[in-house]
Structures are given as C-alpha cells and as structure tokens.
Amino acid sequence: MIRASKMKKSKTATAVAYKKPESDAPMNDITSRHLIDSAATVVPPPETPIQRFSRQFVKGRVGTIAAGFLLLLVVVALFAPFIAPQNPYDLGVVSILEAEKKPGSYSNSGQHFYLLGTDGAGRDVFSAILYGLRISIGIGVTSALAALMVGTCIGLISAHFGGKVDAVIMRIVDVQLSIPSILIALVLLAALGQGVDKTLLALILVQWAYFARNVRGSAQVERNKEYVEAAIGQGLSSSRVMFRHILPNCMAPLVVTATLQMAHAITLEATMSFLGIGLPQTKPSLGLLISNGFDYMLSNEYWISVFPGVALVALVVSINLVGDQLRTVLNPKLDA
C-alpha cells in the first residue's frame, strides 16, 4: 500500500511538472531567432591568390619595411625631374662657381639650398642621386627582365627535350657560372666599348645562365608529372606544353631569382661604371657618381662619393630583403 501510494504521488508530480504549452508561439520565436542568427552569420568569400600572397608577405616585418622603402626609391626615381631641386646636367643651370660646397650650404646667390652639397662641377649632389637612381634602377630592371626571357626559353628547351640538348646547354651554363660575373662583364665591355646598349647586352649575357639553371631544375620536376604527360599524349606542340603547361608552375622560383638578379645587375653596372668602362658621362648612374667623387676623398670632401654610395647600398639591400621575403612566401618549405 505504501509503495502504491508513492507511485501515485510520483505520477501526479510528473503530470504536474509537465504542462503542454498553450501555443506554439514560444517555439516559433526560438526558431525565428535561430534563423535570423544563422542568416546574420555570413560566410566570408575565399581569399584570392593576391590576397593570400599579400597577407603572407606582410607577416615579415623586415621584408615589408624593405618593400616600402624600395617603393619610395622607385617613386622618387620616376619623378626625379619634378622632385630634384635642379637638373644637374643642364649646363645653363650648373655653375662651376658652386663647386665643392658642403652639405647644408646655400648657393652664392642665396637662392638655392644644397642639402647634400655639390660636386666638383657644381652640381647638386641630391639632384644627381635622384637622377642616378633612375638610371641604375632602369638598367637593373631592364637587364634582369631580358635575361629572364632568354634564360627561361633556354631552360625550358633543355628540360623538355633532355638528352644531348640538355647536356650541351647545361655544360655551357656550367662553364659560364664557373667564371666570375664581373670578369665576363669586364671582358665584354672592353671589347664592345661604353654605352647603355652595350652595358645592357653585357649584363644580359652574364645573367641568363642563372635563370636557365633555375628554370631547368623546376621544369624537370614538372616534366615528369601526369598533367604534362597527358598534354603530350593529346598531341600538343612542344611550345604549347612548355609555355602553357610547364612554365606557369615554375614562376615562383623565377620571381625570386629575377628580384635578386636585379640587385646583382645594379651592383655589376655600378662596378663597371666606377671603373670607367660602363655608362658614359652623359648617363651617370650611382656607380659613376661614386667614381666622380673618389678623387675628392683625400681632400676631405667625402660627400661627393659617400652619399651616392649610401644610396646604392640602400637600393641593393632593400631589393635583396624583398627577394628574401618573396622566397619565404613563395616557398614555405624553407621555414619547415
């Protein structure tokens, strides 16, 4: 009897505890709020390759600062005629009476302020550096891009055809890379003479082997993959297989190599201009500006050579740091 009464009480308590909702309104409110919250949660669109590259590039603080500084140098070089206080190669403006003025001095008339002083010909050193940056950057970019195209074609041919073609091309590359670049450039310019076109030709002949070797190594890896074998099996021409299928997958090391070779080309050109066999006096680069002021170093007129030298070092270092950051982003296995 006692157990039966307890069971009745528990059933009664359960019946009291459970009450059927009078309406479905509260459940509908919960459902509607859930749908609203779900609708408010918008799935972000997937990252584009450029967005992903930018996000990974800015993770490196040093590389980002170097890229910003390099961009500043490029902009300043492009707009040098508008930024420079004077045209240092306009004979109607330059006066020999203003020669060898110290940094922070004024002209004899008091109308011009020489931030970095003047050289032995009376030219504003700051203006000469801006104009020299244009020439140095132009030479470096042009020669690196031309060498990139030549080396890429040769490297793809070597990797695609293989056999004797690959052996002959790689032996030529090995011989050239075994000789110092500066020696090859000096011999070529000694035979060709001074000039912008001759300097560009010498730099291209020096640099193409670096691109050919890098492209050949990357293309050989891609050459053995199934998508290339499928393209060959479909009867596609060799040029289409090389440039439409293999080359796009070799671009990452090419971009890094091209960036570093720009700095290499600028350094080589500055060396040759300093030695007097590079660009002519009418097209003074940073290397030629350093050479023009070298004779004044012993007379304590350091600024004529030192400031162009600082600009050259800053340009080359910033390019190398950007190239190193590009290598880290485009080849994350290096950090593994």
Describe this structure in words.
Helices cover 70% and strands 1% of the residues. It has 336 residues and is mainly alpha-helical. The protein has one domain (68-93, 101-335): MetI-like fold, CATH 1.10.3720. Strands 1-2 form a two-stranded antiparallel ribbon. The chain is elongated. It starts with a helix and ends in a 6-residue tail after the last helix. Residues 1-25 have low confidence and may be disordered.
Q: Into how many domains do the coordinates divide?
A: 1
CATH superfamily: MetI-like
Q: Could you describe the largest sheet, including whether it forms a barrel?
A: 2 strands, antiparallel
Q: Structural class, from secondary structure content?
A: mainly alpha
Mean pLDDT comes to 80
Number of DSSP-assigned strands: 2
At a glance:
The chain is mostly helical and 336 residues long.
Reconstruct the topology from this structure.
Blueprint: H1 2-17, H2 25-40, H3 49-57, H4 61-78, H5 80-83, E1 105-106, E2 113-114, H6 125-161, H7 163-177, H8 181-192, H9 196-223, H10 226-233, H11 238-246, H12 251-275, H13 286-294, H14 303-330
Helix pairs in contact: 4-6, 4-14, 6-7, 6-9, 6-12, 6-14, 7-9, 8-9, 9-12, 10-11, 12-13, 12-14, 13-14
Keywords:
336 residues, mainly alpha, MetI-like fold, two-stranded antiparallel sheet, 14 helices, 70% helix, elongated, disordered N terminus
